[in-house]
Amino acid sequence: MKKIIFMLKDIIEKALNKQIELEASSSQFYLSMASWTETKGLSGSSSFLYQHSDEERMHMLKLVKFINERGGNALIPALIQPPTTFKSLTHVFESLLEHELNVTESINNIVGLCLEEKDFTTHNFMQWYVAEQLEEEALARTILDRLNMIGNDKGGLYLFDRDLSKEIPQDEQV
Ligand code: FEO
User: Which of 52, 54, 82, 115 could pair with 32 as two cysteines, CB 3.0-4.6 Å apart?
Assistant: First the structure.
């Protein structure tokens, strides 16, 4: 019996390849944040951000596999250097939230495109990303609220940094 393979439309493949680029840039950006916080002695924040960077790479890989398994060609993008210095830890997490909001917008655009193109398979696949963005945005907002509460209190910052490492599942700690 002939195997029916669901083929991606070019327009969807192009949008997913753009998302690969965005997830890769997220991973690089958070890696840079992790490195910066590590040099500032913020080891809890740094562990959290190293793990977050790994997660973004996993988001990218899921897209690579999806495109290739559906007869498309996943394109691995060139690396662009992200910002390497930050004004403060609050600046780090403000940048992270801003970046995640861009990612959410991009994912929502792909979901909309899938509906326009009646590509319900990719639409279904993208629901995982929709749910993930909700979680990531909520976490970034919670972290920022805590940081804003702490303000310039050094003791508070110490405890915040120590506690942030607890947000990482034990088997994913770097
Ligand atoms: Fe994969 Fe946080 O976007």
Answer: 82
The enclosing domain of 133 has a CATH number of 1.20.1260.10
Atom 1 (ligand 1) nearest CA: 56
- Atom in ligand 1 nearest the alpha carbon of residue 129: 1
* Residue 106 within any structural domain of the chain: yes
pLDDT, tens digit, for every residue of 129-144? 999 999 999 999 999 9
Question: 117 lies in a domain?
Answer: yes
CA dihedral 82, 47, 42, 20 (to 10 degrees): 10
33 within a domain of the structure (yes/no):
yes
For residue 99, what are the domain limits? Answer: 12-75+92-172
Q: What is the pLDDT of residues 78-129, one digit of tens each?
A: 999 999 999 999 999 999 999 999 999 999 999 999 999 999 999 999 999 9
Question: What is the C-alpha to C-alpha distance for residues 15 and 35, in angstroms, rounded to an integer?
Answer: 30
The helix, strand and coil proportions of the chain, stated in percent and rounded to the nearest 5, come to 75, 0, 25
Q: What pLDDT shows up at residue 5?
A: 59
Residues with CB under 6 A from ligand 1: 23, 26, 56, 59, 100, 103, 136
Structural domain total, the chain: 1
Q: Look at residue 2 and tell me whether its pLDDT is greater than 60.
A: no
Shortest-distance atom of ligand 1 to CA 56:
1
CA of 133 to the centre of ligand 1 (A): 6
Q: Ligand 1 centre and the CA of 70: distance in Å? A: 22
